[in-house]
Amino acid sequence: QLQLVESGGGLVQPGGSLRLSCTASGFTLDDYAIGWFRQAPGEERKGVSCISRTERKTVYADSVEGRFTISRDNAKNTVYPQMNRLEPEDTAVYYCAADPDLVRVCTLFRPAWDYWGQGTRVTVSS
User: Strands 115-116 and 92-99: what pairing?
Assistant: First the structure.
């Protein structure tokens, strides 16, 4: 059974850093594009970043460009978004998603993604 599990969320002060993890079970992460989305209270789920399946091309939302970096560790079957210079506006539940069809490029268009994790909460507050 294909499963994605996020971890690494928590409380962090503004300006701080956090690294989330998305670990796959039941499939090889290297065969999928991986995306990260977030949903703040009262808002829709929005794309944050993604990395394509084969070209390893990355896409970032304007709101996180220059602060977040997404990377893959195929040996651990895990994808990491490194989040730096966090702001209160980054507070949300973060979800990872996987899709096998986003081969050379990826997209932050939510309907394009087939598989989803359960989310991990990130709170940025002093």
Answer: antiparallel
Cβ–Cβ < 8 Å for 59, 118 = no
Specify the length of the chain in residues: 126
3 state SS for 59-97: EECCCCCCCEEEEEEHHHCEEEEEECCCCHHHCEEEEEE
Q: What percentage of the chain has pLDDT greater than the value 70?
A: 100
**Distance of alpha carbon 51 from alpha carbon 60, whole angstroms:** 9
Phi, psi of 29 (to 5 degrees): -60, -30
Amino acid at 48: V
pLDDT digits (tens, 9 = 90+) for 23-74: 998 888 889 999 999 999 999 999 999 999 887 899 999 999 999 999 988 8
**Could you tell me which of 81, 84, 83 has the C-alpha nearest to residue 97?**
81
Question: Cα separation of 53 and 40, whole Å?
Answer: 27
Average pLDDT, the chain: 94
